[in-house]
Amino acid sequence: MNRGIHKEKNKVVQTIIAISLSLCILILMVKFALAFKPFYYFEVDRLNIEATSNISKDEIIKNYDYTIDYLLGREGTKFELPTLPSSLFGQVHFEEVLKIFSALDIVLILSIVVSIIGIVFLYKKRNFSFVKQASNILTFFPIVFGVIFSLNFERSFIIFHKIFFRNDYWIFDPQKDPIINILPQEFFFDIAIFILIINFVIAFLLRILYHKKLKYLK
């Protein structure tokens, strides 16, 4: 009886650590994709944003860089683009996005702490099933969302905003908030796929690590 209870507790701990580790990796990959500005620079040319927005490339990059630095907490709390105008609703929206990223930072710290403690605990027991579980989660995530995004990204984009925002400030008027012209929906689709691909690669690497650990234990 006690052995069965102990086994069930181990499974619960494994699952908690796997979820925590997966969450940690997902958030880190989102932040990495956000901070990796060269991806956007490539998109500026690929999507011909300079022509469609009627804004020079230098100005596009300057305002994009500011926006990213702002969302990463490097520009204070008031959103104020270097050269482009912003409406009050536009400023409020970016301030709300900043709050979401700040909340993600807290979740990230907690998941890192839980993951480290759990990994140390399970490593001592030579139990690495959590690595396989984390790999499964990180494989499932990009496959499911990749299919959803591919079928109807616009609908997914709208649902995402309705879940995370209690207003419609995210629906920008290009005349009042021209930044929307340099952030086309195609860019958000590409960066979403970029994040999913990275997660899929990490899932694959975790699976390799898991099998190597099994061979080591044998």
Describe the structure.
It comes from Asaccharospora irregularis DSM 2635. InterPro entries: Lit (IPR010178). The chain crosses the membrane at residues 12-36, 100-123, 135-153, 187-210. This is Integral membrane protein TIGR01906. Keywords: Membrane, Transmembrane, Transmembrane helix. The chain has one domain. The protein has seven helices and no strands. With 218 residues, it is mainly alpha-helical. Helix content is 78%, strand content 0%.
Quickly list its features.
elongated; transmembrane; 218 residues; Lit; Integral membrane protein TIGR01906; transmembrane helix; single chain; mainly alpha
Strand content: under 5%
Determine the fraction of residues in helical runs and give it as a percent range.
over 70%
Give the C-alpha Rg: 21 Å
Query: What is the molecular shape?
Result: elongated
Give the terminus-to-terminus CA distance: 28 Å
> Assembly state here?
single chain
Largest sheet descriptor: none
Question: Overall pLDDT, averaged?
Answer: 90
Q: Low-confidence segments, ≥5 residues, pLDDT <50? A: none
Keywords: Membrane, Transmembrane, Transmembrane helix
Pfam families: Lit (PF07314)
InterPro entries: Lit (IPR010178)
Protein name: Integral membrane protein TIGR01906
